[in-house]
Amino acid sequence: MEYTVQALARLAGVSSRTIRYYDEIGILKPARVNSSGYRIYGPAEVDRLQQILFYRELGVSLDVIREIMLSDDYDGIAALREHREKLLEKRRQLDVLISTVEKTIKASEGRIVMTDKEKFEGFKKKLIEENEKKYGREAREKYGDEAVEKSNRKLMNMTQEQYEAAEKIQSEMFETLKEAFKTGDPAGELAQKAADLHRQWLCFFWDSYSKEAHAGVAQMYVDDERFTAYYVRVQPGLAKFLRDAVHIYTGMNK
Amino acid sequence: MEYTVQALARLAGVSSRTIRYYDEIGILKPARVNSSGYRIYGPAEVDRLQQILFYRELGVSLDVIREIMLSDDYDGIAALREHREKLLEKRRQLDVLISTVEKTIKASEGRIVMTDKEKFEGFKKKLIEENEKKYGREAREKYGDEAVEKSNRKLMNMTQEQYEAAEKIQSEMFETLKEAFKTGDPAGELAQKAADLHRQWLCFFWDSYSKEAHAGVAQMYVDDERFTAYYVRVQPGLAKFLRDAVHIYTGMNK
DNA sequence: ATAAACCTTTGCGTAACGTTAATGTCAACA
DNA sequence: TGTTGACATTAACGTTACGCAAAGGTTTAT
């Protein structure tokens, strides 16, 4: 049984280019070459090609396949085990991806529902306008237009459920923070829990979280009198305490 | 807030090369270029980059991202839904891959256990030698060395459980075939079931199944007197009947 | 003044082929 | 015997999303 490139390609269900490429990179050389320069493949090559395709189907790179086939003492099982780990890791990543995409779709669908609910829409719009009036200019100057606008958009896009969840987190954060303040230890368990809740609350409004930004906001609570004033109304010294807790939480306390 | 390439890169957590590449392919152009040719990015570009990175994290290609961002009327949700389907398909493929790899590993482990079981080993070796003596030369001539050797290797690598399962399938196939033979209809339900069982039995010995090869084996049962003799002992005309059933089963009956 | 740390463009390299171009070969049919 | 169509060959560029290096200009700090 001898095959020319195309015959072998059809037999194996790959393109003739693939066959020639495998010759080119030296993992499947023809049994012989006839007088016209045609590649002629025999039974041994068919067998070899099937092995190559087997590994290829498993997602092993041709480079690795070459090594597998070159060395007789190659531990194929160990390689496969390693490869399986890679595949599992890939699937984990894929799962995260899928859930993110689904969340995004759901959020978008939520937004559609939301635009229908005009009352809630108006409410949030008013809330944004109020925010803009109060802190808009300064925040824009400090953090740039894009941060403010994104925050606003984020708020616009929030569904009622999300909004309520955010408020709940925030009040929980304040309760925890007040309890923590009594202990006077910003590195303590309660204070760190408050810092974590603060992070959670921030994540309702931020597209991406970073330690630096979190620490920055905490510092802002101290630097900006409006925020400080708000915190002072709850408890004098609370803004600084939260800042210290967050700076420890984020590891930015050096 | 203005950023140079490296500043923006650090902000976004990507390389400066990536930023320049995005300029090159036109999905993120700098706000302006200063007198020294430095790229300067403003708030709008930061925002745009974050959008790009968002889609990129979802595994969307830059080409598609470009289209998403170019057209205002682009239906982002529909695109994401489509993308989700692709991701799910990818995960299905990955799952198949993983289970195949795991099966392969298990089979290999089985082989290791098997080599320990010397009795069974010897038994199978004898079986292979017998097969070789009986049909080896002819089969090699007809189907090539690689097919025979692969079949032998397959048999060698079979665990006892697999071997018993294969024998069980074979006897079931014969029972069904004899029943079907009574009906005289190779296209009938019973005969087709026998053909399917025959395929299952073959798959214990073959690395890859193809209709052509299956039909070829069925034809061999008729052409080769040794096989015919075997079938005749069970029931005269059985080999031809099986061949007809298999040819119908594989769609090779034209 | 000088060095370090930036910035720029240009261009090659990656994996596994797909695609095109220009040309040669083979089997079959009129 | 000539022609046609299906094959074969090599060579070379294109693909993705950048990494890396070279060669040189700019900015900033000491």
- pLDDT < 50 stretches of chain A: 112-157
Say how many strands of chain A there are.
2
Computed over alpha carbons, the radius of gyration of chain A is 31 Å
Order of helices and strands of chain A: HHEEHHHHHHHHH
Strand content of chain A: under 5%
State the fourth-level CATH superfamily of the largest domain in chain A: Antibiotic binding domain of TipA-like multidrug resistance regulators
Question: Helix- and strand-based class of chain A?
Answer: mainly alpha
> With helices defined by DSSP (H or I, 4 residues minimum), what is the helix count of chain A?
11
Question: What would CATH call the class of the largest domain in chain A?
Answer: Mainly Alpha
Number of domains of chain A: 4
The best one-word shape of chain A is rod-shaped
- The name of the CATH topology of the largest domain in chain A is Globin-like
Largest interface, with counts of residues having CB < 8 Å to the other chain, equals: A-B, 41 and 40 residues
Helical content of chain A, roughly?
A: over 70%
Query: Under the CATH scheme, which architecture of the largest domain in chain A would be assigned?
Result: Orthogonal Bundle
Oligomerization state of this entry?
Answer: homodimer
Mean pLDDT of chain A: 69
Major sheet characteristics of chain A: 2 strands, antiparallel
